[in-house]
């Protein structure tokens, strides 16, 4: 079987290393020629090395992976998207008839996806398909259903300042100073809010960066949000948080 020259674009080194290991063991016809960890680096590697296949993460520090495709659409390659996004992103991929792998990557799904790539693609990632995917991908719901004793309260996601975990519960803080306590763990809401640009900055805290005012240094970094909210920034998450923030705020 002919080797397929392949580039991995992902900002998490651990994800790259895991994918490299799995491909080496289960898809030996996939020849890894390089890796990149940002939109800028990905574009440079594609233009320099002209790979036949990309493993492309959607969420990169300096923008969405779609920017890589837009900048290199004149070159011939195929794409397998890797993502931790929710069901709405999955529907977008399926609607556009594109291949994707959910993180953490399932071995059987990986083998199934890579077995389709045995020859050099006849054409690159078309402009029409890219535009269709971007349109579908960004059709996220603008409301979130929060369960209560009477049923559900539907809240505007854009009005959420932050979420705080409280022993299996989650407390929502809103721009109008309202608070809502829900009997669901914060990890569940991390999955739902991640596609909307929210960041989990601490094991107990998720924030909406749209309301971020400042980051105060100290023994423990503190994030100051609008309406006087203060949230600790985990030291382990700090480098990741700053890299993600650079894709949303000009530094």
TrEMBL record:
Keywords: DNA-binding, Phosphoprotein
Domain HTH LytTR-type: 174-247
Gene3D superfamilies in the cross-refs: 3.40.50.2300, LytTr DNA-binding domain
4-aspartylphosphate sites (modified residues): 57
Domain Response regulatory, first and last residues per copy: 5-118
Gene Ontology biological-process annotations: regulation of DNA-templated transcription
Protein name in UniProt: Response regulator transcription factor
Organism in which the protein naturally occurs: Croceimicrobium hydrocarbonivorans
């Amino acid at each position: 079987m002919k080797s397929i020259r392949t580039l991995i674009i992902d900002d998490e080194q651990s994800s790259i290393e895991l994918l490299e290991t799995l491909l080496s063991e289960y898809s030996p016809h996939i020849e890894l020629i390089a890796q990149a960890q940002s939109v800028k680096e990905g574009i440079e590697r594609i233009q320099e090395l002209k790979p036949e296949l990309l493993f492309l993460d959607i969420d990169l520090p300096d923008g969405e992976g779609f920017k890589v495709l837009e900048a290199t659409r004149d070159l011939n390659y195929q794409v397998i998207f890797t993502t931790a996004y929710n069901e709405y992103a999955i529907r977008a991929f399926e609607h556009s008839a594109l291949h994707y792998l959910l993180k953490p990557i399932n071995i059987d799904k990986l083998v199934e996806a890579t077995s389709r790539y045995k020859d050099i693609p006849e054409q690159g990632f078309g402009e029409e398909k890219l535009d269709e995917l971007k349109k579908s991908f960004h059709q996220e719901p603008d409301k979130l259903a929060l369960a209560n004793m009477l049923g559900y309260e539907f809240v505007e996601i854009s009005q959420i300042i932050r979420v705080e975990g409280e022993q299996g519960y989650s407390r929502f803080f809103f721009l109008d100073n309202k608070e809502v306590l829900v009997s669901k763990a914060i990890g569940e809401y991390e999955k739902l809010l991640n596609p909307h640009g929210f960041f989990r900055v601490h094991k107990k805290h998720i924030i909406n960066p749209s309301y971020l005012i400042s980051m105060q240094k100290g023994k423990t970094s503190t994030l100051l949000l609008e309406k006087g909210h203060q949230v600790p920034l985990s030291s382990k998450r700090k480098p990741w948080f700053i890299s993600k923030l650079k894709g949303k705020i000009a530094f």
